[in-house]
């Protein structure tokens, strides 16, 4: 099996200050910057002197090595004559949940073993490999093997590294002491999502003359791929990479801004809210005359719409409904929903729900007329048990967009694949909203609400360069459902989700929920309706083709005790939510999928290993040790499973013989899987009939603060959980309703 690709580990070099060398024990070296080239480096000096004068392994001192994991990783290693004494790692660019946790383990293992031959520790993650490479680099200097230079050879160089879904090749032009130009010349990362990174990261590297640049939010894998490829190119130019990885830019105080309407969050709901505030109820060409701004954390607009399966429901009055011949009236639909979900009568606002559903035709037609990437040709009849109390199937209209205008591949064909048409949904919605005159500021994140008493005056915003304030007459929060990250779980749902690890998608930050909660407000929890499914415990932007491994492929699943816990027959065959719920009952809400080298899932292993989610072993024991599972239990489980699969079938959970895949041929693999939610979780806040946010149910409203989409579920939650496409529909429609309320209120003033 191929190891994770890390290219910087072999001959990178960090510098020592002149004078640091053999015999100067405990001296602390600093990394020389590119503008202070050392004439002769300590390493060069020491290389010449070591063999004659030093009996030990190392030249005592402190050395810095650098390699690239998710971003640049540096290791500062202190040695005496024969011993590695101390290691400090800078893992600030690594994924918090995966990268940072393994740092301490690795340091301990390296110090204990006095070397980096520790393959079994913490799996073959990108970060683990980078740490080892960076430490090796520092040790190469300490042992005098490496020559150091601070000048590059002017010219044009290329480097290649893995991004999100493909190899990215970067071309870089350098002079002796500067990076003159950077360009991505090849990438097949996901359309749209990766574009901001491809544009911005090269610019940042040149502007800041550093590889330690901020990633583009929402496109972190592509961003770090570009940085890594640029690093490789710099190395080819003869650069000392440690010179090019220090000093992140300080943020300045930016210029404050005033606007009529500010929308926070540019997902489906926020974009349509901004459009409705800028236009009218039909989303026509009329300009309301209001100044409308929208800020979005990601480097692209669309939020989860951009990652979604491409399913969009429509209930009446659109070309989609004409195509299927299926139609509901608002009253029919709302009556059916309320009847089928009596448990929510206390939470759902019947008036708001009817107002929102009433907008179905105006919103979908208005968007389609403006160029939203949705066509009637893709409409089909979607079945739902959530429209009838007895659970029998009712039909409504949904659409799944064409994935790629050239190939015709439909979104959803490979599951929730980010190559699907959803990217075009996100892109077209963002573009049409901008064209209508809304000012969209991407990579701008709201960090807090500006409050005066119970009145919202605006938000504090942070971007790549600065921190500033946007003051607005009306603020609409459209930051989505709550995320299923550990921080949100600890805050709102420790009793429900326990130790869940980062099973969220990129869009859900729980910003609105946390702000209101911190003000003493209430949150609504509609957990029975939560859409919990199996997923890799990483951002669901990668909920792509490799998801087939747990959706459609049979394999053994074990829990942290190394024991099976269910009939694993292709879990997503209609029972994804059921399996999601079972995962929540396991320790750490996780399981490991175990298979051997003849299994078709092997093709996804590289990708999953890169994310620290897969392990390989020559024996079951070896695999268990690497994956952190009890080896004896795992061996016993696999032995029993293999025996059953050769006999009459599963004697423990009843899995049919034809669905059992024996685990016999080395190497063996384990992939970690967790409980995840595509939409986020239904923790939202209360609003009144105009979508004005309330601190408590039926309590005081927060003046000038509105909510929409996943933020405020009490108007439409039953609608949003009916079936495929209903989340996006509810987000679009509730966004329009919130935008209408805000526009009408301002125009009346
Ligand atoms: C993989 C996947 C597949 C899905 N498939 C479907 C499907 O096929 N059909 C369907 O109906 N539903 C689907 N869903 C659910 C659906 O996409 C979402 O429920 C819906 O798009 C939510 O829209 P929203 O605007 O409320 O929130 P979001 O899409 O979450 O948008 C919120 C936006 O706010 C931004 N933001 C958050 N915090 C801040 C901040 N502090 N400052 C600035 N910006 C901020 C986020 O970056 C994000 O862009 C899917 C979801 C996922 C993840």
What can you see in these coordinates?
- By secondary structure, the chain is of the alpha+beta class.
- The chain folds into four domains: 1-150, Sufe protein. Chain: A; 155-244, Sufe protein. Chain: A (Alpha-Beta Complex), CATH 3.90.1010; 257-529 and 679-748, FAD/NAD(P)-binding domain; 532-677, Flavocytochrome C3, Chain A, domain 1 (Alpha-Beta Complex), CATH 3.90.700.10.
- Helix content is 30%, strand content 21%.
- It is built from 21 helices and 25 strands.
- Strands 7, 8, 9, 13, 14, 15, 16, 24 and 25 form a nine-stranded mixed sheet that branches. Strands 18, 19, 20, 21 and 22 form a five-stranded antiparallel sheet that branches. Strands 1-2-3 form a three-stranded antiparallel sheet.
- The longest helix is centred in the C-terminal third of the chain and has 23 residues, at 726-748.
- The chain is globular.
- Flavin-adenine dinucleotide is lined by residues 264-270, 295-298, 303-305, 307-311, 416, 445-446, 478-480, 505, 507-509, 511, 540, 543, 678-679, 709-710, 724-728, 731.
């Amino acid at each position: 099996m191929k190891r994770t690709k890390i290219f910087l580990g072999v001959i990178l070099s960090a510098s020592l200050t002149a004078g640091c060398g053999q015999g100067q024990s405990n001296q602390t070296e600093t990394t020389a910057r590119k503008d202070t080239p050392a004439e002769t480096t300590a390493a060069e000096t020491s290389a010449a002197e070591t063999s004659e004068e030093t009996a030990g392994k190392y030249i005592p001192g402190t050395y810095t090595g650098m390699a690239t994991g998710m971003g640049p990783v540096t290791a500062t290693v202190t040695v005496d004559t024969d011993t590695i004494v101390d290691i400090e790692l800078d893992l600030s660019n690594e994924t918090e949940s995966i990268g940072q946790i393994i740092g301490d383990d690795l340091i301990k293992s390296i110090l204990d073993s006095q070397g980096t031959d520790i393959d079994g520790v913490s799996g073959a993650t990108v970060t683990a490999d980078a740490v080892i490479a960076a430490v090796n680099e520092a040790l190469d200097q300490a042992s005098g093997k490496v020559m150091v230079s601070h000048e590059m050879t002017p010219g044009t160089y290329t480097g290649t590294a893995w991004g999100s879904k493909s190899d990215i090749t970067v071309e870089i032009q350098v002079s002796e002491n500067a990076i003159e130009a950077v360009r991505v010349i090849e990438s097949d990362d996901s359309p749209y999502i990766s574009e901001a990174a491809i544009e911005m990261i090269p610019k940042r590297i040149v502007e800041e003359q550093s590889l330690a640049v901020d990633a583009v939010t929402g496109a972190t894998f592509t961003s770090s791929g570009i940085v890594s490829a640029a690093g490789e190119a710099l190395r080819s130019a003869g650069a000392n990479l440690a010179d090019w990885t220090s000093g992140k830019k300080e943020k300045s105080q930016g210029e404050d801004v005033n606007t009529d309407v500010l929308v926070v969050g540019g997902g489906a709901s926020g974009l349509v809210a901004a459009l409705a505030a800028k236009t009218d109820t039909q989303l026509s060409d009329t300009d309301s005359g209001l100044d409308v701004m929208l800020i979005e954390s990601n480097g692209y607009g669309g939020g989860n719409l951009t990652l979604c399966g491409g399913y969009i429901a429509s209930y009446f009055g659109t070309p989609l409904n004409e195509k299927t011949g299926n139609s509901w009236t608002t009253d029919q639909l709302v009556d059916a929903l309320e009847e089928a979900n009596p448990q929510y009568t206390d939470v759902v606002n019947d008036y708001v729900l009817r107002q929102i559903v009433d907008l179905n035709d105006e919103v979908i037609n208005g968007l389609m007329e403006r160029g939203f990437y949705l066509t009637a040709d893709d409409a089909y009849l979607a079945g739902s048990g959530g429209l009838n109390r007895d659970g029998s199937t009712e039909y409504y209209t949904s659409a799944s967009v064409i994935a790629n205008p050239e190939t015709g591949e439909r979104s959803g064909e490979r599951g929730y694949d980010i190559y699907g048409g959803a990217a075009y949904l996100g892109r077209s919605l963002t573009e049409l909203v901008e064209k209508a005159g809304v000012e969209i500021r991407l990579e701008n994140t709201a960090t807090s609400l500006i409050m005066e008493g119970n009145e919202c005056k605006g938000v504090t915003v942070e971007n790549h360069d600065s921190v500033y304030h946007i003051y607005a007459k009306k603020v609409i929060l459209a930051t989505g459902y709550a995320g299923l990250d550990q921080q949100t779980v600890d805050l709102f749902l420790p009793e429900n989700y326990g130790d869940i690890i980062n099973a969220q998608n990129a869009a859900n930050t729980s910003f609105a929920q946390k702000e209101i909660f911190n003000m003493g407000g209430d949150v609504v929890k509609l957990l029975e309706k939560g859409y919990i499914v199996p997923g890799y415990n990483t951002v669901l932007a990668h909920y792509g083709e490799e998801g087939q491994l747990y959706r459609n492929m049979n394999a053994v699943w074990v829990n942290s005790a190394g024991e099976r816990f269910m009939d694993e027959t292709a879990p997503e065959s209609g029972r994804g939510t059921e399996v999601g719920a079972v995962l929540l009952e396991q320790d750490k809400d996780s399981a490991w999928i175990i298979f051997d080298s003849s299994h078709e899932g092997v093709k996804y292993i590289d990708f999953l290993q890169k994310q620290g989610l897969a392990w390989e072993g020559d024996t079951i024991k070896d695999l268990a040790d690497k994956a952190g599972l009890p080896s004896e239990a795992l061996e016993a489980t696999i032995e029993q499973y293999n025996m059953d699969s050769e006999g009459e079938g599963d004697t423990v959970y009843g899995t049919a013989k034809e669905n059992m895949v024996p685990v016999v041929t080395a190497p063996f693999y384990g992939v970690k899987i967790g409980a995840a939610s595509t939409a986020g979780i239904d923790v939202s806040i209360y609003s009144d009939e105009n979508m004005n946010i309330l601190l408590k149910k039926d309590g005081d409203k927060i003046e000038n603060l509105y909510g929409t989409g996943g933020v405020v579920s009490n108007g439409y939650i039953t609608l949003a959980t009916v079936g495929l496409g209903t989340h996006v529909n509810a987000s679009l429609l509730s966004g329009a309703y919130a935008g209408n309320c805000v526009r009408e209120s301002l125009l009346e003033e």
